[in-house]
Predict the 3D structure of the following.
Amino acid sequence: MKNIYLPTAIGLYFNYLVHGMGVILMSLNMSALEQQWQTDAAGVSIVISSLGIGRLSILYCAGLLSDRFGRRPFIFLGMICYLVFFFGVMNTSNIIIAYTFGFLAGMANSFLDAGTYPSLMEAFPSSPSTANILIKAFVSSGQFLLPMIISLLVWAELWFGWSFIIAAVIMILNGLFLLRCTFPPVPGHHKSFLQSAPVSTETGGHHCSLIDLASYTLYGYIAMATFYLISQWLAQYGQHVAGMSYTLSIKLLSIYTCGSLLCVFITAPLVRKTVRSTTLLMLYTFISFVALLTVCLHPSTYVVIVFAFVIGFSAAGGVLQIGLTLMAARFPHSKGKATGIYYTAGSIATFTIPLITAHISERSIADIMWFDTGIAAVGFVLALFIGYRSSRESKDRANLSSRRA
């Protein structure tokens, strides 16, 4: 039977296409914003960090409240906050006010996450990983399209603010569409849903121990930090370290998003049918580490181009969403809470990473990529630990079942 929530899911995915643009709008318009705000790259980077603070400030509470009051209000609240950000940033000339709008964009991200991820897991209970990974496809699509839009604006010598307006218009049209859509009921509030919802084949009904909770939360920080740093500094690295032209360097983000899109389309059917999510978690984190180490040792133009594709595939192709789905399985009736905890860790990364890299950039942009290599190494060790714990728990459940039989 056709899933009645499919139109809703499409609308939710389009929100993340706009979110993909919003994450990198300021970094790709950095030169124009430096002039408008009368600051330098470090100043713009500090404003970018406001997204992380805004996200951190409200995400956990938003997740808890979405479990109680439903997903729909928080999704629309997030869309409204994003619209204020788009129109505000492009018109302000004051860096403090810009920081406030960035803070609001971070809150918008939190509201969207708190409503969208649980909604998709509730709309597609038999394949939650696939539903969540597809969010990354739309984020990547937005990050793929935006550099092209900005390149056209630069070529046509048009105002940089048009890139913000285009994102806002898409969000408005999508909001009108979602107003007519039906959202799935929240588990725990609707008994009939709990009775009819199938159990995911990807995860068991196990609960989360303190050590597992800590490992998933820390992985949320590491996974977000790894690809967030790349999305903000890849173009700068290509231009200033690999010696690429400005127009070619900003196209690295399009190559990066091509890699992430390909990974989504490969990973989605794999986690649905054949490969364990923890196996992909370990594999992709290892590939990220190797790719970062390679580009740091050999920062040439061709290596950076290949690196952009590989790191997009491994670090930004849905591994963050896989981690969330695994963690959310430990909170079957509190998916909003799980989303809040996991992405609170990620929002700490989006706040701390720009501040750290702003300081490192004053010394060397090349050192920023070495810093990311260290983060990826820690992430790989953590993924191995998560995989080990998951495998051991599966064996324990199998042994317990055999003894009962």
Observations:
- Residues 18 and 170 are 7 Å apart (CA to CA).
